[in-house]
Each structure stands twice: as structure tokens, then as C-alpha cells.
Amino acid sequence: MPIDQDNGHGNVVVSVNNLTKKFPNPMTGKEFVVLDSISLDVEKGNFASIVGPSGCGKSTLLNIIAGIETHDASDGGTLDVYSHSDDAQPRVGYVFQNARLLNWLTVEDNMTFALESQEIPKDLWKERVDKYLEMVGLEGQQKNYPLNLSGGMQQRVAIARALAIEPDILLMDEPFSHLDEITARKMRFDLMEILMHANPTILFITHDLGEAVFLADHIYMMSTKPARIFKHIEVDVPRPRQPEDPEIFDLEKKLVKEFFSVLDAQAIEDG
Amino acid sequence: MKSLILKPGLIPGMVTIIASVAVWQVASLFFLPVFLPGPLYLLDLIVEVYSDPASYSVIWKTLVRIFNGLVLSMFIGTAIGLLMGIKKHFESFMDSWIMVLLTFPAICWAFLSVLWFGLSEIAPLLTIVLIVFPFVSMNIWEGTKALEKELVDMATVYRADRWMMLRKVLIPQLMPYIFSAMRIALSLSWKIALVGEAFGVSSGVGQKLIYWFEDTRVDMMLTWGLSFMVLMVVIEIAVFRLWERHTFAWRHQIAN
Amino acid sequence: MSEKATAVSIRISSIIALLILWHFAAIAMADAEILPTPISIAYAMVGVLVEPGPEGKSAYFHVGVTLGRTFMTFGVAMVLGIAIGLAMGLRKVIEHSVMALIPLALTMPTILMVFLAVMWFGFSEIGSLVAVVGVVTPYVAVNIFQGAQAMDKSLIDMAITFRASRKMLIRKVYIPQLLPYIFSAFRFAFGMTWKIVALAETFGIKYGIGYMFFFWFEQFNMELVLAWIIMFVILMLILEHAVFARLEHAAFKWRPANQLQT
Q1: Are A224 and A57 in contact (CB under 8 A)?
Q2: What is the ipTM of this complex?
């Protein structure tokens, strides 16, 4: 694991401050606010989760952090991602809702595609591929093609691919939402085990409160239209966690109630 | 207030067309009209040719041949395509032959027709049918593959009523495929007809083309060629608009 | 018998049945100028392959000429078509400008294109090149353009999040997605090119299979016309199906077996 450097930002990997994003609506000429003054910090080794109903801009935030989209800098919002390795550039790994594998490349080549893009030296490739495939439970699948794998297995490859670059931050956008419930449950457990062994820094998006409470250290609750973070909760339950843990269950109930009250208030506001 | 919504592609498209015609006109000034006629010169020639009533019988002859070839190709092609869809053995039998037929250049059939039947109506007809029906068969066969299960069910349950089922249930479902097959068939048929006429008969637009080709008169050849192209495109569009409206009228009715 | 063996045996027996039918029909007609027997055609084909033909040029010479023209013109037409198709995909202006002229290009009958090419550029290699490019390139361009439009944006985004270089994007993300379109354009275009070259040769571009078609046609020699046609068709079938099908199969081995499309 890379050694922590004192880069002046302490343990923070991602720092978002008053980030805003607006979309001009071509039909009405008015601006549609997608993200409204979002602020959050993710510290090294932590699992942060953003929870909110679908369509509230959570994916947009992740895309901005990953560099696929831009934010409105003119409004004074800032976004910083800090490198905690020897490289000057921070490494960002991303796991999408769909595995987004290159179906014409083998599992191994899919992973080395990411390694090569990140300019990781070639002599490290084999060991990284083997190590992270084993970590997601797919050892031996190196030479297989994605279309021969199930949906869950494809998603595991996507996770292994993101982990293999040993990112400063691992972004996950509802990675289990397209899987059936049984597979999703298994994946959550496996993700928790990966957390306990490899200790990556994760920013995880979901609309499933139960999932967030089970996995996360920090939960940021987001409302929709515009997307605003209205609550931040720390989850102090030690790992390994069980979904049936009474603490987990109670916390989930409490947060669901809070969500409903916020949504109701907003409905009244919208009138 | 009616606002003119300009399709984004309209302006570059129109600019390209106007510019091309302009370049053509300018280029034609450097050559003799018999070698490179300009657009204006061609328009004059076209008017001249179409003022002559004899031209219309030439075109009519070609149109009749196209129609005959198209109808025959559609019948044979649809029948074969259907059979291929229904009987597995027939499918294996036919698909190699269709593959072979698809490699034949039209000109070969034109030559063979002449050797067999001399200069006659058979040459263009045979050429069109043998080139076009494989395309039609492939299209209809694709359509049957999409309906295969229903074909089998139909065949087993309603044995006595098979012909009724064919007419009332099968064919309407195959209509989109028949439709698209016919568009391809029409588009191909008229081009092949020209080849068939060039070698096989002594009348028709195709014969005019080869006549002026051998006389090295680009201007006359383009007069006949381009005007016929325009005519066929208009026919294609007209026939298909009308047919679509008629055949899929039931969809419009359901929608209303 | 397995399904595949049944299919193959049906094909073989249909060929044999056809040959037998042909044989008896030919004997019934008793006119070698209309319908020669299969055996006489076979002899004629052997003769063509073994003896030097008219003007002392062997069959291999003619086949070589046609093949050479076909590959050369096909190569140029494909490269041009791919370049234009890609350009159309990259710049909307190019897309709209080219699409304005495409209907004309696609409607132009092959025979007219060949006539024009030959009249303007002569009975030469240039003439055949122009004819092929005029017919094939527009088709390939449209095909490739459609492929460029069908690119999966989600994969491009994924590659961007990993900071893939432009070269890697092109090699590993863009090109593999274009390959199916290139292949399908390839096969269709190759078939078209053969026919255009043969047509151009029948109209007088010297030497080649088409030239032989016309030569023996003028002599009313049914046997040799048929012999050359059969050789042409066999050659085309071998190229189109044995060669291209294999190439395609190798390129798409990552597709699961039950989804293999020919």
C-alpha cells in the first residue's frame, strides 16, 4: 500500500465545496439546477455513501469527480481530489451500474486496459491482475471473455479492474442495482470483505438506504430537484456487519423516516 | 406566427448541392458538350427528347419490362422464401443455390438469355428475375424466422384450414417483410432492366444507353440515363407511399 | 443423422440431381449451341485451364488480370469509403454535405456508372477504378458512418474515467466497435466490385474474365461462355465464403457461440 504523504490535505482524498451545476433548459430558457451547493469530504480508507431517490443528480456528481462532466466554477464551488501515492496525479477508479467491459477483450486484457491507461509499469500488470481477480473471487478467469460471464461476474470484473489501479478514490454508481437481489446481497458481502482487507477509499451512490447503512462509514442524504445534501450521518457499527444487526436495522428505520419527512416537505413546497 | 424550424443539416446540404451543380456547369465550359455536357445543356436536351412522342414508347417498353420482372420476382421470391421458412429441408436445399445465384453478375444472364432465346423479351425478363428473386427470398425468409413458432403451431392445429391461415394470418404478419422486399426488388429491377435491355433487345431505355455509349455521346447518354433515374425515383416514392397507406391502414384505424 | 450432416447431404444431392437433370435435358435438346451437356462443359473448362487461349493468353492470365483489378479497386474504394464515413461521423458538416449527394450516388445504375467512367477515363485501369469507386465508396461510407453513430458512449466514458490515451481509445474502443460494420461493408462491397470489374471488362477493358465472357459471346460459343461463367462463380464463391467467412470468424471469436451471426 502506498505510504501516506503529508500533502497538506491531511487524510482527505476528495473535497467538495459548494459545488453547483446548472443545465440550461433549451425549451424554456430557464436554468435547471442539477446540483445545489454540495459539500462533502471523503477521508482516506473511509466508505462514504450518498443516498437519494433516483434522478437527483447523484450520478452527475460522480461524473464531475471522475472528470467526465464539469461543474460551474463561476459560482465559487470547488472540487479537489488529492493523490495519496507517489504520483502527482490522483487515481480515480469508477464502477458503473453496468459493467461497461470491452466485450472483445479477455477479462485480463480488460484489466490491463485500465492499468495501461493509468501508465502503471508493465512488470506490475500480472501480479495486479491475479491479485485483484482473486480478491473478487474470479481467480482463473483471466482468459475468459465477458459475454461468457454472468451479470454478477461481469460486475466483479469491473470492480477488480477499478481496484487494480489502486485508486486514491473508488467511485461506485449504484453498482448492484441491475443485479437480481440474491446476487446483489452476495456482492455487498464481498464488497465488505474487500473493505476489510484492502481498505480502499470509496464513494458509493445508491437509492437503497439499507445497502448504504450496511456498507458505509459516512452517509450523506440527498434530496432531489435540486440535489442538496440535507443530512450527514456516521455509521459507527464495527465490521463485519450483518444486515440483520439490530443497530443497522434501527438506523435504517430512522433514516427512512427522515427521508420521508424531507420529501413530504418538498412536495408541499413544490405545491 | 409560423416559425421555420431549420433542420440542422439543411444548410450544408443545400450548399453542397448548389456548389456541385455550379462546379459542374463551370467544368462543362472546358469541354465539348458531347464529352461533358453542363446541367443547362442537358436540360435543353431533355426537353428536346421528351418533346418527341416516340420517346414515350421507348420508356413505356422499359416500364412494362420492369413491372413484369418485378411481379414475377416477387411471386417466385415470396413463394421460395415462405417454403424455406416452413420446411427445414427446403431451406438447406435452397440457401446454397441462392448463394450461388447472388454471385451471378447480371451481364451473364443477359448473355445466356441471348444465346438461348436470341434478342427477345425473354432476355430482360430472365435477367431481372434471376437476379432479384434471391434478394426477395432472403428477405421473406428472414421474416418467417421471426414468426417460426407460430408457423409450426398453425400447421399442427388448423390442418384443414391451412390455406385460410396462410392468407388471413401469415401473410398479414409478413407484410412488413414483403413491403421491404418489394422496395429492394423495385430498386434493383429497374437497374437490372437496363442491363438486360442493353444486351438483350433492340428497344427500351437500356438500349438507348448502350447505343449512345457506342456512339461516344455522353450528352445523349446522360439525357436518357439521368431523366430515367429521376422518373424511377419518383415512381418508387409514389408507389411506396400509396402502398404503405393502403396496407397499413388497419394500423391507422386502430390508432384512431 | 445429425442436423448438419443432413443439410450437407441435401446440398450435395441437390447438386448431383441438378447435374443429372441438366445432362438429360441437354441430350433431349440435342443442340450443343443451346444447352451443352455437363460433360462437354467440363471438358471445355479443362481445355481453358490447360491450353493457351485466344491471343496466346492463358486462363490464369485473365483470372490474374481480373483479380488484380478487383483487389486494387476494392482496396481504394474501401479506404476512401471508410475515410469518408469516419469523417462524416466526426464532423456534422461533413455528414450533412455528403448525405446531400448520397441519394444520387446510390441510385445511379451500375451500368451507367461504368459507361461514364469508361467514356471519361478510357478503357483502362483508371476507368475501372473510377467505376468501382463511384458505386462502392458511397455505400461503404454510409455503412461506416452508421457504425460510427452506433458507438457506445458509455464505453467511451468508462475509458475516459481511466484516463485512456487517444491512441488507446482508437485502438481498443473505437475500432473494435467499427469492425462489424467494416466487415459487412467489406463482404458486400467485394461482391459488388467483382461484378463491376467483370462488367467493365465486357465493355472493352482489355483482358480479364469479363473480356472472355464477351469474346466467346460474340463467337456464339455457348460451351465456353458457360465454362467461363462457372469458373467465375466458383472463384467468387471460394473467395466470398471460404476466405471472408474465416476472417470474420476469427475476428469475432469473443462472441458467445449461440449468437454467432454470419
Answers
A1: yes
A2: 0.85
